[in-house]
Write a structure and sequence with these properties.
The complex is a heterodimer.
Chain A: H1 10-18, H2 25-35, H3 42-55, E1 56-59, H4 67-78, E2 92-96, H5 100-110, E3 117-121, H6 131-143, E4 148-152, H7 155-159, H8 163-177, E5 182-186, H9 189-192, H10 195-207, E6 212-214, H11 226-243, E7 248-250, H12 258-271, E8 284-286, H13 289-302
Parallel strand pairs in A: 1-2, 1-8, 2-3, 3-4, 4-5, 5-6, 6-7
Helix pairs in contact in A: 2-11, 3-12, 3-13, 4-5, 6-8, 10-11, 11-12
Chain B: E1 20-21, E2 23-25, E3 28-30, E4 37-41, E5 48-53, H1 57-75, H2 80-96, H3 98-109, H4 113-134, E6 147-149, E7 152-156, H5 162-175, E8 179-183, H6 190-201, E9 209-211, H7 216-224, E10 230-234, H8 237-246, E11 253-257, E12 263-266, H9 272-284, E13 296-300, H10 301-316, H11 336-351, E14 355-358, E15 373-376, H12 383-386, E16 393-399, H13 402-410, E17 417-421, H14 425-434, E18 439-442, E19 461-462, E20 475-477
The chains are: A alpha/beta, B alpha/beta.
Chain lengths: 314, 481
């Protein structure tokens, strides 16, 4: 199997990443397209929908976010469908740094203690700030009650070949997270462009201690394209098979429909395997997706589409 | 919470099966002169799909006569652009009836609906569309203005891609102005008879296409019929050789597409994950019933461990079962003699000392099945490295250097296909120039397109099908030599 033995000198890091097997883009796209033809019906669909709901990182990352908007979001996170108490709660809520304490307090107040608050961090989404600022950003979020940190990597450093800088940043943020917070590393694959880069960045993040690798910020298009998700799932699978360390995957951006979400679960099942069919190891970063999942769930239960006014807008 | 795929069975209500199908001669459904019929079975269930007419010498006579009449009186005289219109019309009807054709093919052949729906039928339509375009442009086929059609062409096709092979035969023959008598395989005649209906629906002039069902004896009558100007055959090298011998002292033209033992070569710098997919697609596509299958995996020794480990995991994910289930990857083995042959060669591999491995699968209790099978530690002198198994059985051979890979790949009487997996363009081009195979895929396998010529070196065949080259076996130069 693959050798994963990194002393973190710039040259050994670079040679490790450059020696990874290359990705054939046409082949990866063909595999993703084949998996997209899987037909998920009846009982499987029911299970898939509930599983997908439990994996949603319900997200709002807007300049216009207010305490009211956040409270509304976390209420929905706990009770996605208020008329159906058997609907599972979502995997987490994902907000900006300064909204963490509001989200945490409101969740605790309404009985959502089991729902983690994820904070985007390290000068999200661009990552263009000093290391001191990125550290402070992360420390603030954890102090405010975030138990998941979604950091962005320095794509400029990555593209210029300075893998060491990217690595060191992840290590530094991971140190701050320690036992208090899970670290998700956002690769922003839309800016890395090639699947070879996606594979390299996945390994770089995993080797530096990421608990999760996440495709995108949601601010750049394309985001979680099927081949990108496939390559990241291959990376966590091979990393696990080599080192026994299970890293999670979070596609984010562009997953809006139940069909999209079920495709993600098929990718997981037939690439990384059943071990990842678990909110602890697979999340879907989304906002609009949740309502489509709820509408499809109602359709399966009642036999007809209920329409938009039967799900809550936020 | 476990997420498994519930059965998702394609409905068969779109297919209205008759109990009995007759020959298609002179535009009409005609009962067999001998009054005999044979059963075609669904290999996944063993049930009878329908009965088909057993063709005799009299039936062949009648069909050749109908084809000759149509050639002399209609098809030869028709403006080429008009011929093309019929082909376009057939192509469109195939698209309109695609779901029905996919279901029929799956029931009669045993291949998964995912493949008939996504590969076979779309390719069938595209072959007719492609050749429709050629009909009035034949002066650009390479013979200048000095060409003519042969007349009546006899065509015999195999059971592995029944409708697709029909399209590879009929579309170029009609585009180039010939008329046709075609015999589908004994175990898979259904879609050919649906195609006969499509010819009627398209109002193709009577006798331009004639279809006679039957067994090897029927095929022999067709090959030896004096009214046939050209024979086109796809099938085993063994039968191809008999055909070549039997028409050796006639002036009949011949094109053959025969067996293979394709080498799928994985170099150390290959994109491994996609290569594993390519290996899977190379040998498990269509249950390995593929003449150009990548049935010999040649993998560089220094990456063999990783490749085989990933391959076994991937093989364990292959979903074997009901071919009508939309999530089935591997369907039924088409016929009992073929399953017996696969088992015989598999046993030979075990007896000769190659390392045998099968994915764990639950085989259905009825029907003909073979689990995905992998041999490692195979050497050139093993039978499973030399003989065509024509089933889901892969033989893995390692090599040390690129030169050795080429030497081993070419060390076979066949020469139909090869695959080269490498991230290095120069190595791929070098390998392609050295490999003796009619089709060479780079970082992919089993990809087909009507614009690309397909055919073999050595014992894998004569002539090409598809592309400009595929027109030439149906055209003769009218320049007197």
């Amino acid at each position: 199997m693959m050798r994963i033995n990194i002393d973190s000198t710039p040259s050994s890091l670079k040679s490790f990443l450059n020696e990874l097997p290359k990705v054939d883009q046409v082949g990866a796209a063909a595999r993703a397209a084949m998996l997209a033809t899987r037909s998920i019906k009846n009982d499987s669909k029911k299970k898939a929908i509930d599983l997908a709901i439990s994996m949603v990182d319900l997200t709002t990352l807007e300049g216009s976010d207010t305490p009211g908007k956040i409270k509304s979001l976390v209420t929905k996170a706990l009770h996605p469908d208020p008329s159906n108490p058997d609907v599972p709660h979502v995997g987490a809520v994902c907000v900006y740094n300064d909204m963490v304490s509001i989200a945490r307090a409101e969740l605790d107040r309404i009985g959502g203690q089991s729902i983690p608050v994820a904070a985007v961090s390290t000068a999200f989404p661009s990552g263009r700030a000093s290391m001191a600022v990125k550290i402070q950003d992360t420390q603030d979020a954890i102090a405010a009650g975030a138990s998941e940190i979604d950091m962005v990597i320095d794509r400029g450093a990555f593209l210029s070949g300075d893998y060491k800088l990217v690595f060191d940043e992840i290590v530094a943020i991971k140190d701050i997270c320690g036992q208090k917070a899970h670290l998700k590393v956002i690769l922003e694959t839309g800016e890395l462009v090639t699947l070879d880069n996606v594979r390299k960045a996945s390994y770089l993040a995993m080797a530096a201690g990421a608990d999760f690798i996440r495709t995108s910020t949601g601010k750049i298009s394309p985001a979680a394209t099927p081949p990108v998700v496939l390559v990241m799932l291959e990376a966590v699978r091979d990393f696990y098979n080599t080192l026994g360390i299970q890293v999670g995957v979070k596609p984010a951006g562009g997953i809006r429909t139940t069909k999209d979400a079920i495709r993600q679960l098929v990718f997981v099942k037939e690439t990384a395997g059943d071990l990842w069919l678990d909110p602890r190891f697979f999340r879907i970063g989304a906002s609009a997706l949740l309502n489509d999942l709820l509408m499809q769930r109602m359709k399966l239960q009642t036999g007809y589409y209920a329409g938009r006014n039967y799900v809550t807008i936020d | 919470m476990v997420f498994e795929y519930a059965p998702s069975i394609e409905s068969t209500t779109i297919l209205k099966l008759a109990n009995r199908y007759q020959h298609f001669i002179g535009g009409k459904m005609v009962a067999p002169a001998g009054g005999k019929y044979f059963d075609s079975l669904n290999p996944a269930t063993g049930e009878v799909v329908a009965q088909f007419a057993q063709g005799s010498k009299k039936d062949v006579d009648k069909a050749v006569q109908a084809a000759q009449n149509a050639y002399d009186k209609i098809w030869k005289k028709m403006p080429a652009a008009e011929r093309g219109k019929y082909l376009f019309r057939i192509a469109r009807i195939i698209q309109e009836r695609s779901r029905e054709l996919a279901v029929a093919e799956t029931i009669d052949n045993g291949k998964p609906i995912r493949e008939t729906r996504d590969v076979d039928v779309p390719l069938v339509a595209s072959h007719f569309f492609y050749h429709a375009g050629w009909a009035d442009k034949l002066q650009y086929a390479g013979l200048g203005d000095k060409y003519s059609s042969y007349g009546v062409v006899g065509q015999i096709i195999p059971w592995n891609f029944p409708l697709l092979m029909l399209s590879w035969k009929i579309a170029p023959a009609l585009a180039t102005g010939n008329t046709v008598v075609l015999k589908p395989a004994e175990t898979t005649p259904l879609t050919a008879m649906l195609f006969a209906e499509i010819c009627q629906q398209a109002e193709l002039p009577a006798g331009v296409v004639n279809i006679i069902t039957g067994d090897g004896e029927t095929g022999k009558e067709l090959v030896n019929h004096p009214g046939i100007a050209k024979i086109a055959f796809t099938g085993s090298t063994e039968v191809g050789r008999i055909i070549a011998q039997s028409i050796g002292n006639t002036d009949k033209a011949l094109s053959l597409e025969l067996g293979g033992k394709g080498a799928n070569i994985i170099f150390e710098d290959a994109p491994i994950d996609e290569a594993v997919e390519g290996i899977i697609n190379g040998i498990f596509f269509n249950q390995g019933h593929v003449c150009c299958a990548g049935s010999r995996l040649l993998v560089q020794e220094n990456v063999a461990g990783e490749v085989i480990e990933k391959l076994k995991k991937r093989m364990s994910l292959i979903r074997l079962g009901n071919p009508l289930d939309k999530n089935t990857d591997l369907g039924a083995i088409n016929n009992a003699p073929q399953l017996a042959k696969i088992k015989e060669l598999t046993q030979a591999g075990i007896d000769e000392g190659a390392e045998f491995w099968q994915a764990e699968v639950n085989l259905p209790t009825t029907g003909l099945w073979c689990p995905p099978t992998l041999f490692t530690g195979v050497w050139q002198s093993h039978r499973i490295a030399r003989e065509e198994i024509f089933g889901p059985v892969l033989s893995t051979i390692t090599f040390r250097t690129p030169e050795e890979a080429i030497e081993k790949a070419n060390n076979t009487p066949y020469g139909l296909s090869a695959g080269v997996w490498s991230d290095k363009g120069s190595r791929t081009l070098w390998a392609a120039s050295k490999l003796k195979a009619g089709v060479i895929w780079s970082n992919t396998f089993n990809k087909f397109d009507p614009t690309s010529p397909f055919g073999g070196y050595k014992e894998s065949g004569w002539g090409r099908e598809g592309g400009r080259h595929g027109l030439l076996p149906y055209l003769k130069s009218s320049v007197k030599g």
